[in-house]
Amino acid sequence: MQEKFTGSFTQQEPIPDAGIKAAMDVLHHGRLHRYNVAEGELGETALLEQEFAALTGAKYALAVASGGYAMGCAMRAVGVKAGDKVLSNGFTLAPVPGAIASLGAEPVFVEVTDSLTIDLQDLQAKIATSGAKTLLLSHMRGHLVDMDALMAICDAAGVQVIEDCAHTMGASWRGTHSGRHGVVGCYSCQTYKHINSGEGGFLVSDDDAVMARAIMLSGSYMLYERHAASPPAAVFERVKYDTPNISGRMDNLRAAILRPQLTTLDAQVDKWNARYKAVEDGLRNCPGLHVIDRAPEGRFVGSSIQFRLPGYAPAQIEGFVQGCAGRGVELKWFGAAEPKAFTSRYDSWRYAQKQALPETDRILAGLIDMRLPLTFSEHDCKTIARIITDEALTLSQTVAVE
Ligand SMILES: *Cc1c(COP(=O)(O)O)cnc(C)c1O
Q1: What is d(CA 284, CA 276) in angstroms, rounded to the nearest whole number?
Q2: Cα-to-centroid distance, 234 and ligand 1 (Å)
Q3: Who has the most CB within 10 Å: 93, 237, 341, 402?
Q4: How far is the CA of 175 from the centre of ligand 1 (A)?
Q5: How far is it, in rounded angstroms, from Cα 34 to Cα 58?
Q6: How many CB atoms lie within 10 A of CB 118?
Q7: Does residue 179's CB lie within 6 angstroms of at least one atom of ligand 1?
Q8: What is this structure's pTM?
Q9: Per-residue pLDDT reduced to its tens digit, 53-110
Q10: DSSP 3-state assignment of 101?
Q11: What is the C-alpha to C-alpha distance for residues 67 and 358, in angstroms, rounded to an integer?
């Protein structure tokens, strides 16, 4: 009998009781719109922003409708215009180039390395050839590039950095929270990320004018004084006539669900990383399978794990993925020719100019990805690792490796 796994890779934990109670309170009083507050009341959304600013160490925070919205809003707030070129990782997910396209700007993709982080040499080259003045840096799957080196390159070239921290909420680089190196950090509270309100997102920044514009862009009308983690009113006076309202607000119901989750985020990160380690330990000595080492300067969030199976033909990898699926282990493969479910890659985003990224192609051709929801136990993780190892062994024995 072959071992099988029966857990669900898309089942997250329930909303904590404190979040359910707070949500019920909002439903009872009915003031769901963030600016619909009683006299002197700071609504759930404003409180959430204060708490998120404190958590990340940012001066200002803004809660919005989604992570994708946060990135588009951040780019508008730093002054990206239609037709501008915006650098981003060749290895990321669809909301990232989508946010660039939402401004009518043009994505310029940068190669990825074997560590799944942006290739700093290629970044330097693409800054020079494209003339782009903005980098939308995606910390894809929580792999953190050397942020000190990246910021040195971007600062020297006058490139402003916006961080996509959809996979790094709760992570840090040398003790600084991810999203605090660039001018704006953007986060997602979508169900599959690190805190869950179904949909939702944040921007954080220390920059007065950027955050005032972001707040107005998000749809504050002239009610910006109902924010708490925000620049002084005088800053809004300078931007309020020139900043369009592109509604994408957070509401008090979702904020109520999220606030208790912020208080447990750090403990959740430990739980994720214990599960991650259980899988990683199980995969370490599997022939032909490469786990991806993470930089020791970074505290990451092991909410998913990636590994490489270099040198196999597409049909072989497909067979491996199907073999695992048949035993209840749901994997995604970034080398597939066609985009599938949440997984797509740069050459399927055909609204962007066609670009050649041979290194990224090589890496994605053998790249496997797996979610690790907290509903899995460490025992589950060991089972999963055994199944993957077993299938990888079959793969290495039955087919010739290049
Ligand atoms: C999920 C995700 C986002 C943001 O997505 P939303 O669904 O809009 O909240 C951004 N970048 C990456 C890499 C993501 O996976």
Answers
A1: 12
A2: 33
A3: 93
A4: 24
A5: 21
A6: 28
A7: no
A8: 0.97
A9: 999 999 999 999 999 999 999 999 999 999 999 999 999 999 999 999 999 999 999 9
A10: helix
A11: 29
